[in-house]
Amino acid sequence: MQQMMGREGDVVLVNGQVRPRLSAAPGERERWRIVNACPSRYLRLQLEGQQVQLLSRDLGRLPVPEESTGVLLAPGNRVELLVETTEGSAKLVTAPVDRGGMNGMMGEGRMGGNSAGDDEAIELLTFEVSGDRAQTPNPVPAGPALRDLRQEPVAARHTLDFAMGMGGGGAMMDGAGSGENTMMAFTINGREFDAARTDTAVAAGAVQEWTLTNSSPMDHPVHLHVWPMQIIDDGDRNLSEPRWQDVVNVPARGQVKVLIAFEDFPGRTVYHCHILDHEDQGMMGTVEAR
Ligand SMILES: [Cu+2]
Prior knowledge:
This protein is mainly beta. The chain has two domains: 2-129, Cupredoxins -  blue copper proteins (Immunoglobulin-like), CATH 2.60.40.420; 149-289, Sandwich (Immunoglobulin-like), CATH 2.60.40.420. It contains two helices and 23 strands. The chain has a seven-stranded mixed sheet, with no helix packed on it. The longest helix has 5 residues, at 276-280. The protein is globular. The protein starts with a helix and ends with a strand.
Protein backbone atom coordinates (compact mmCIF):
# COMPACT_ATOMS: atom_id res chain seq x y z
CA MET A 1 0.00 0.00 0.00
CA GLN A 2 2.76 2.40 1.00
CA GLN A 3 4.65 1.68 -2.20
CA MET A 4 1.61 2.59 -4.29
CA MET A 5 1.13 5.85 -2.44
CA GLY A 6 4.86 6.52 -2.54
CA ARG A 7 6.81 5.75 0.60
CA GLU A 8 7.50 8.82 2.73
CA GLY A 9 9.29 7.24 5.67
CA ASP A 10 9.12 8.60 9.21
CA VAL A 11 12.05 11.01 9.41
CA VAL A 12 12.94 14.06 7.32
CA LEU A 13 16.65 14.88 7.24
CA VAL A 14 18.16 18.26 6.43
CA ASN A 15 21.66 17.87 5.04
CA GLY A 16 21.73 14.40 6.56
CA GLN A 17 20.80 15.57 10.07
CA VAL A 18 17.70 15.35 12.22
CA ARG A 19 16.47 18.86 13.13
CA PRO A 20 19.81 20.67 12.85
CA ARG A 21 20.38 24.08 14.40
CA LEU A 22 21.50 27.00 12.22
CA SER A 23 22.58 30.37 13.51
CA ALA A 24 22.89 33.89 12.14
CA ALA A 25 23.17 37.51 13.24
CA PRO A 26 20.14 39.79 13.00
CA GLY A 27 19.86 42.00 9.93
CA GLU A 28 21.64 39.60 7.58
CA ARG A 29 20.42 38.47 4.22
CA GLU A 30 21.07 34.82 3.48
CA ARG A 31 20.43 32.74 0.40
CA TRP A 32 19.07 29.29 1.14
CA ARG A 33 19.30 26.81 -1.72
CA ILE A 34 16.80 24.02 -1.17
CA VAL A 35 16.09 20.82 -3.06
CA ASN A 36 13.32 18.43 -2.15
CA ALA A 37 15.32 15.21 -2.37
CA CYS A 38 12.61 13.14 -0.68
CA PRO A 39 11.52 10.18 -2.79
CA SER A 40 7.79 10.83 -2.30
CA ARG A 41 7.16 13.50 0.31
CA TYR A 42 5.88 16.92 -0.70
CA LEU A 43 7.14 19.86 1.36
CA ARG A 44 5.31 23.05 2.21
CA LEU A 45 8.03 25.09 3.87
CA GLN A 46 7.32 27.83 6.38
CA LEU A 47 9.85 29.81 8.37
CA GLU A 48 7.87 31.76 10.92
CA GLY A 49 9.15 35.04 12.30
CA GLN A 50 11.64 35.68 9.50
CA GLN A 51 11.27 37.69 6.32
CA VAL A 52 11.40 35.27 3.40
CA GLN A 53 11.39 35.97 -0.32
CA LEU A 54 11.42 33.53 -3.21
CA LEU A 55 14.48 34.25 -5.38
CA SER A 56 14.36 31.35 -7.78
CA ARG A 57 12.31 28.34 -8.74
CA ASP A 58 13.98 25.20 -10.15
CA LEU A 59 16.32 26.44 -12.85
CA GLY A 60 16.89 30.14 -12.55
CA ARG A 61 16.25 33.27 -10.59
CA LEU A 62 13.13 35.37 -10.90
CA PRO A 63 13.47 38.89 -12.31
CA VAL A 64 12.17 40.26 -9.00
CA PRO A 65 12.05 38.23 -5.75
CA GLU A 66 8.52 37.39 -4.60
CA GLU A 67 7.21 37.75 -1.05
CA SER A 68 6.67 34.29 0.34
CA THR A 69 4.88 32.90 3.36
CA GLY A 70 5.10 29.27 2.30
CA VAL A 71 6.64 27.43 -0.57
CA LEU A 72 5.44 24.13 -2.00
CA LEU A 73 8.04 21.68 -3.27
CA ALA A 74 7.10 18.41 -4.94
CA PRO A 75 9.87 15.79 -5.01
CA GLY A 76 12.61 17.06 -7.31
CA ASN A 77 11.61 20.73 -7.06
CA ARG A 78 14.19 23.32 -6.00
CA VAL A 79 13.97 26.88 -4.74
CA GLU A 80 16.28 29.59 -3.58
CA LEU A 81 15.01 31.68 -0.70
CA LEU A 82 16.28 35.01 0.55
CA VAL A 83 16.01 35.12 4.32
CA GLU A 84 16.35 38.51 6.02
CA THR A 85 17.04 37.70 9.61
CA THR A 86 15.16 38.95 12.66
CA GLU A 87 16.35 38.32 16.21
CA GLY A 88 14.79 35.30 17.86
CA SER A 89 14.43 31.57 17.50
CA ALA A 90 12.53 30.38 14.44
CA LYS A 91 11.61 26.94 13.20
CA LEU A 92 11.53 25.80 9.61
CA VAL A 93 8.57 23.46 9.32
CA THR A 94 6.87 21.55 6.56
CA ALA A 95 3.09 21.82 6.72
CA PRO A 96 0.86 18.94 5.61
CA VAL A 97 0.22 18.61 1.88
CA ASP A 98 -2.82 16.80 0.53
CA ARG A 99 -1.58 14.92 -2.51
CA GLY A 100 -4.55 12.60 -2.78
CA GLY A 101 -4.64 8.91 -2.01
CA MET A 102 -5.99 5.55 -2.96
CA ASN A 103 -9.56 6.28 -1.91
CA GLY A 104 -12.00 5.10 -4.51
CA MET A 105 -9.55 2.75 -6.17
CA MET A 106 -9.95 -0.31 -3.97
CA GLY A 107 -13.61 -0.65 -3.17
CA GLU A 108 -15.11 0.66 0.02
CA GLY A 109 -14.20 0.28 3.59
CA ARG A 110 -11.30 -2.14 3.49
CA MET A 111 -8.34 0.13 3.74
CA GLY A 112 -7.86 2.51 6.62
CA GLY A 113 -5.59 5.54 6.39
CA ASN A 114 -5.10 5.33 2.68
CA SER A 115 -4.29 8.92 1.91
CA ALA A 116 -0.69 9.98 1.58
CA GLY A 117 1.18 12.32 3.85
CA ASP A 118 1.14 13.48 7.44
CA ASP A 119 -1.62 15.33 9.22
CA GLU A 120 0.62 17.64 11.21
CA ALA A 121 3.48 20.02 10.52
CA ILE A 122 6.97 18.56 10.96
CA GLU A 123 9.84 20.56 12.36
CA LEU A 124 12.85 20.49 10.04
CA LEU A 125 15.38 22.80 11.71
CA THR A 126 15.85 25.53 14.28
CA PHE A 127 17.16 28.90 13.19
CA GLU A 128 18.74 30.93 16.02
CA VAL A 129 19.23 34.62 15.27
CA SER A 130 21.18 36.55 17.89
CA GLY A 131 24.20 38.78 18.49
CA ASP A 132 25.31 42.07 17.04
CA ARG A 133 23.23 43.44 14.24
CA ALA A 134 24.76 43.03 10.76
CA GLN A 135 25.10 45.94 8.34
CA THR A 136 21.97 46.42 6.26
CA PRO A 137 22.55 44.70 2.92
CA ASN A 138 22.15 46.48 -0.41
CA PRO A 139 18.86 46.05 -2.28
CA VAL A 140 18.60 42.91 -4.43
CA PRO A 141 19.32 43.84 -8.05
CA ALA A 142 16.73 42.89 -10.66
CA GLY A 143 17.48 39.83 -12.75
CA PRO A 144 17.03 39.42 -16.51
CA ALA A 145 13.52 38.99 -17.90
CA LEU A 146 12.42 35.40 -18.44
CA ARG A 147 11.86 34.00 -21.90
CA ASP A 148 8.19 33.59 -22.80
CA LEU A 149 7.52 30.78 -25.27
CA ARG A 150 3.97 32.03 -25.78
CA GLN A 151 5.48 34.54 -28.16
CA GLU A 152 6.94 31.75 -30.33
CA PRO A 153 5.17 29.44 -32.79
CA VAL A 154 4.00 26.05 -31.49
CA ALA A 155 5.02 23.26 -33.88
CA ALA A 156 3.00 20.42 -32.32
CA ARG A 157 0.84 19.43 -29.39
CA HIS A 158 0.82 16.26 -27.30
CA THR A 159 -1.22 14.97 -24.39
CA LEU A 160 0.28 12.68 -21.77
CA ASP A 161 -2.17 11.03 -19.40
CA PHE A 162 -0.85 9.80 -16.05
CA ALA A 163 -3.02 6.98 -14.72
CA MET A 164 -3.25 4.17 -12.20
CA GLY A 165 -5.21 1.00 -12.68
CA MET A 166 -5.37 -2.67 -12.04
CA GLY A 167 -3.40 -5.15 -14.05
CA GLY A 168 0.15 -3.92 -14.26
CA GLY A 169 3.57 -5.04 -13.17
CA GLY A 170 3.71 -2.76 -10.16
CA ALA A 171 3.43 -3.52 -6.47
CA MET A 172 1.52 -6.56 -5.29
CA MET A 173 -1.67 -5.75 -3.49
CA ASP A 174 -4.55 -7.59 -2.00
CA GLY A 175 -7.52 -7.14 -4.33
CA ALA A 176 -10.45 -5.59 -2.52
CA GLY A 177 -12.75 -8.28 -1.28
CA SER A 178 -11.47 -10.95 -3.65
CA GLY A 179 -8.70 -12.39 -1.53
CA GLU A 180 -6.55 -12.58 -4.65
CA ASN A 181 -3.42 -10.61 -5.40
CA THR A 182 -3.66 -8.12 -8.21
CA MET A 183 -1.07 -5.72 -9.59
CA MET A 184 -1.44 -1.96 -9.78
CA ALA A 185 -0.28 -0.40 -13.04
CA PHE A 186 1.27 3.08 -13.16
CA THR A 187 1.00 4.23 -16.75
CA ILE A 188 1.45 7.15 -19.15
CA ASN A 189 -1.02 7.03 -22.04
CA GLY A 190 -1.95 3.52 -20.95
CA ARG A 191 1.57 2.09 -21.13
CA GLU A 192 4.17 1.15 -18.57
CA PHE A 193 7.79 2.10 -19.13
CA ASP A 194 9.72 0.25 -21.82
CA ALA A 195 13.25 1.52 -22.37
CA ALA A 196 13.33 0.02 -25.87
CA ARG A 197 10.28 1.97 -27.05
CA THR A 198 10.19 5.62 -28.11
CA ASP A 199 6.90 7.06 -26.87
CA THR A 200 7.13 10.64 -28.09
CA ALA A 201 9.10 11.88 -31.07
CA VAL A 202 9.69 15.63 -31.37
CA ALA A 203 11.40 17.85 -33.92
CA ALA A 204 14.71 19.11 -32.55
CA GLY A 205 14.67 22.89 -32.16
CA ALA A 206 10.90 23.27 -32.18
CA VAL A 207 8.49 24.45 -29.49
CA GLN A 208 5.72 22.07 -28.43
CA GLU A 209 2.71 22.41 -26.14
CA TRP A 210 2.17 19.45 -23.85
CA THR A 211 -1.00 18.88 -21.87
CA LEU A 212 -0.29 16.73 -18.82
CA THR A 213 -3.46 15.12 -17.54
CA ASN A 214 -3.95 13.07 -14.40
CA SER A 215 -6.85 10.62 -14.34
CA SER A 216 -5.81 9.12 -11.01
CA PRO A 217 -6.80 10.10 -7.45
CA MET A 218 -3.22 11.07 -6.49
CA ASP A 219 -1.04 13.98 -7.54
CA HIS A 220 1.91 13.20 -9.83
CA PRO A 221 4.93 15.54 -10.02
CA VAL A 222 6.08 15.30 -13.63
CA HIS A 223 9.73 15.73 -14.53
CA LEU A 224 11.13 16.03 -18.04
CA HIS A 225 14.84 15.45 -18.36
CA VAL A 226 17.06 17.91 -20.31
CA TRP A 227 14.48 20.52 -21.34
CA PRO A 228 12.85 22.92 -18.86
CA MET A 229 9.10 23.44 -19.05
CA GLN A 230 7.27 26.76 -19.13
CA ILE A 231 4.05 26.30 -17.17
CA ILE A 232 1.25 28.21 -18.93
CA ASP A 233 -1.69 26.69 -17.02
CA ASP A 234 -1.09 25.20 -13.58
CA GLY A 235 -4.48 23.52 -13.32
CA ASP A 236 -6.16 26.40 -11.54
CA ARG A 237 -5.53 29.18 -13.99
CA ASN A 238 -3.56 30.53 -16.90
CA LEU A 239 -0.35 32.10 -15.66
CA SER A 240 0.30 35.66 -16.73
CA GLU A 241 4.02 35.77 -15.95
CA PRO A 242 6.53 33.32 -17.48
CA ARG A 243 7.06 30.48 -15.03
CA TRP A 244 9.79 27.90 -15.65
CA GLN A 245 10.15 24.61 -13.82
CA ASP A 246 11.69 21.24 -14.38
CA VAL A 247 9.21 19.42 -12.16
CA VAL A 248 5.53 20.36 -12.33
CA ASN A 249 2.83 18.95 -10.09
CA VAL A 250 -0.17 17.57 -11.96
CA PRO A 251 -3.04 17.50 -9.44
CA ALA A 252 -5.27 14.45 -8.95
CA ARG A 253 -8.02 14.47 -11.63
CA GLY A 254 -6.51 17.68 -13.00
CA GLN A 255 -4.28 18.87 -15.78
CA VAL A 256 -1.53 21.38 -16.50
CA LYS A 257 -0.23 22.83 -19.76
CA VAL A 258 3.41 23.46 -20.53
CA LEU A 259 5.48 24.76 -23.43
CA ILE A 260 8.84 23.15 -24.20
CA ALA A 261 11.58 24.29 -26.58
CA PHE A 262 13.41 21.14 -27.68
CA GLU A 263 16.69 22.93 -28.20
CA ASP A 264 20.38 22.19 -27.70
CA PHE A 265 20.16 18.42 -27.42
CA PRO A 266 19.13 16.05 -30.21
CA GLY A 267 18.68 12.60 -28.72
CA ARG A 268 16.65 10.41 -26.45
CA THR A 269 15.74 10.82 -22.81
CA VAL A 270 12.83 10.31 -20.40
CA TYR A 271 9.99 11.96 -18.56
CA HIS A 272 8.55 10.43 -15.42
CA CYS A 273 6.62 10.88 -12.21
CA HIS A 274 9.07 12.13 -9.58
CA ILE A 275 7.44 10.05 -6.85
CA LEU A 276 10.12 7.45 -7.29
CA ASP A 277 7.92 4.51 -6.28
CA HIS A 278 5.55 5.48 -9.12
CA GLU A 279 8.40 5.80 -11.58
CA ASP A 280 9.76 2.41 -10.52
CA GLN A 281 6.33 0.87 -11.04
CA GLY A 282 6.15 2.05 -14.64
CA MET A 283 5.22 5.74 -14.74
CA MET A 284 7.96 6.81 -17.13
CA GLY A 285 8.17 7.35 -20.89
CA THR A 286 10.78 8.17 -23.50
CA VAL A 287 11.10 11.20 -25.75
CA GLU A 288 13.40 11.60 -28.71
CA ALA A 289 14.31 14.93 -30.35
CA ARG A 290 15.54 14.41 -33.91
CU1 LIG B 1 3.20 9.62 -9.35
